[in-house]
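**Discrete fold encoding**
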Amino acid sequence: MNSLRRQAGTSAVRFLRSELRNLVMLVALGLSVAAIAVIRPQYLSADNLVVVALQMSFIGIAALGMAQLMISGNVDLSIGPLFALTATVASLVAKTWPPTIAALAALVLGGAIGLANGALVWRIKLSPLIVTLGSMAILRGIVLLITGGYAIRGVPKEFGGLGQSRWLGLPTPVWTMLILAAIGHLVLTRTTQGRHLFAIGGNRDACAAVGIPVRRLMLGAFTLNGVIVALAGLLAASRFGSASPSFGTALELDVITAVILGGVAFTGGEGSVLGVLLAVMLLGVINSGIVAVGINPYYAEIVKGAALIFAVGLDQLSQEGREKFRLLLASSER
């Protein structure tokens, strides 16, 4: 009974903290848009907002894959080169094969690389930071070898239909981000697999002890992350009708910043899709707003770095608060 009461209390505090964080980000988003609109009223034009949404959609798609991975207590630093590699492979395949084959090749490749990263992390028992840091260097080298350092051009127009099409005025990448967010929210909050991911991120050894298939779920999370990053790379290649070895540069920084700022604990076990989506929107508005108001765009890098440090610091303070709350509950039960 005491254990159940402690669990209920911890869950309630976690829920309230998540809702408060989302509310703060929503207010910050509204204030940021209002401040930019005062200086540049044209920023709120429909065409400009669509461009801003498109710019943030590729980061948003990749962030959704990273969110479920980090909730399980893992991380992938190789997503930037993976983004570039899958975009390159899709563009090359599209030159000789139908667009559907090119898309399938990119998604399968992304899933295979994600699975390989997960298998190495599980089998060798190394930190995912070390494994995926090595993968990052390997994949970036492969991209440079394939492309020779030059962009892939001459992609058939049919391949562009996937990333350049619109529905109800919004580009396909934006709809993809929104649909994946809805699916991700339902999976994480309404399914057994989603609840198990949270549990694994909270205490992997305890989950293994009670029979939760930790290995299968962890490999699945890495594989799904690879597929989602590949989808983002595929859409980018289709959208621009080409692929460059510079694709995905610093993508891992943008994505991890958004995920942690959105409330996903770096150590796993906590987070929400809504929070991640709000963080992606906030960072996207700030980055585009810096350009819109005429500030030196290099300041955007400073903002991203500061946002990452702030998010990690906030995450650490949240962990300390959770630990104090657990100790308080335990002492009150005694």
In short: The chain has a mean pLDDT of 85.
